From TrEMBL:
Keyword set, alphabetical order: Membrane, Transmembrane, Transmembrane helix
Entry's transmembrane regions: 39-62
Phylogenetic lineage: Bacteria, Bacillati, Bacillota, Bacilli, Bacillales
InterPro entries for this protein: Uncharacterised_YqzF
Keyword Transmembrane helix attributed: yes
Pfam families: DUF2627
Naturally occurring in which organism (per UniProt): Thermaerobacillus caldiproteolyticus
Name this polypeptide is given: DUF2627 domain-containing protein
Length: 85
């Protein structure tokens, strides 16, 4: 059940990023979609959707790999010094 929830959480930003790519592509071909009033705004919204979707998925993968210690040393979280030890 938890894997299905995680998959759903990853699919939503993936679909938004794909929609962003579609809006940017349609702007280059001069196709304007109904909710947006101008081509430049459509391109800007598409770029934002793409960047946010890609950033969310990238952050999710980085967080997962950091927990499993499968990242390069520069991406590892800094550990605080524990004075009690």
């Amino acid at each position: 059940m938890q894997r299905m929830i995680a998959l759903t959480i990853l699919l939503i930003p993936g679909f938004l990023a794909a929609l962003g790519i579609k809006w940017m592509r349609d702007t280059l071909f001069g196709i304007l979609h109904a909710p947006l009033p101008s081509l430049w705004l459509q391109f800007l919204c598409g770029f934002l959707l793409f960047a946010l979707g890609l950033g969310f998925i990238g952050g999710f993968i980085l967080h997962r790999d950091q927990k499993r210690n499968k990242v390069q040393p520069r991406f590892q979280k800094k550990q605080k010094n524990d004075p009690s030890s």
